[in-house]
Amino acid sequence: MTEHTLHIVGGGMAGSEAAWQAANLGIKVVLHEMRPEVETFAHQSGKFGEMVCSNSFRSDDDEQNAVGLLHWEMRAANGLIMATADKHKLPAGGALAVDREAFADHVTAQLEAHPNISVDYGEITELPSEGMWIFATGPLTSPALGEAIAKETGADRLAFFDAIAPIVYAESVNMDVAWLQSRYDKGETEEEQKAYLNCPMTKDQYEAFIDALLAADKTEFHEGETAKYFDGCLPIEVMAERGRETLRHGPMKPIGLTNAHKPEDKAYAVVQLRRDNALGTLYNIVGFQTKMKYGAQTEVFKMIPGLENASFARLGGIHRNTFLNSPTLLDDQMRLKSRPNIRFAGQVTGVEGYVESAAMGLLAGRMAAAELLGRDLPPPPFTTAMGALINHITGGAEAKTFQPMNVNFGLFPPLDGLRGGRKGRKERYKGYTDRAKEDFNQWLEEQS
Fold first, then answer.
1. What is the tens place of the pLDDT at every residue in 175-186?
2. Do 267 and 393 lie in a common domain?
3. Residues within the annotated binding site for FAD?
């Protein structure tokens, strides 16, 4: 182990980005990955940057959306994850969706080809006392490592559940019923404006669907586990339990869509499917994360008009998600206070989403590299998307109620002199993003 070697545990979004950033700063990186030797419930391969839930990085609007702003910052910082997403993007209206297999192949190839990165396949089960380490093990931290983290932090691991949406073969969708359209025809090209498959429901069909959803057999939790769901990834049956109209005002909302087969008919609810690969042969059912048993899934989902003969490339599932109470455990350099040679990054720190996880990996990689090179690298200003996130997880959040968080403008310092409320939102959001870009560029320049 040389003085300037950084060890990174986990080859997901955060670990891959951290390795890329540190290696580009001249640091020798050893990337430790337990897959494929040790499998997880959700992963299908041993590739780096594998997407296990959605294939979307969400909004790419860097002027009116905090996620889009985070995309912009990561591109400005020479982020591997965003460069790869841009290379393998699919039509998705105003969102940035990717061909997940091509995406993982490219991330893996880039990391394996980097002269400063070596890969060590095998499970890490303890927190090392020597050397510089980043743990980016994500929501599927192995039980052995999870126990070591819990022992060190003196607290029980916090857990919620991520549910995976099913994927349908496009050829099995009944296009006499379904039609192609992005909500409000979003997108600059016809391909973007037709990025989603839409399946309409009448009121009677919707009511029958909700009845079946509520009655379906569900997977049971293991003894001692509690269902602390993150609201951004709620299983559809949990949403339905909150009220029969919940889904119709959530992932099944009919607004902004016109039935191409029956333009005069207004659907009571609409199920959307988003393209999942570049070939257009796979579509995932948007927002349909589920913990129904496999047999129940096929029965219930085939009740959706247009999916009566659907063939599934993958059914939904559920897995446990592990994260730290970061406001009490990490400093503003993402170091474990009790063991400052160890940083954490990604979803295990309590951020939610691919982009947020990769962004925390980007910061952890740069901060660790700076420390190894004897430099001081402060976090980005709180006025930036990355700065707002790291501030939230390392001190801005209330520790007693800490839960995983997506980036959003509610984490940003307010702007003086701008109108509040819904009517002033467009101007306010543009103000946030303009300020963030200026401050983030300044932060980058100070490192050069």
1. 999 999 999 999
2. no
3. 10-15
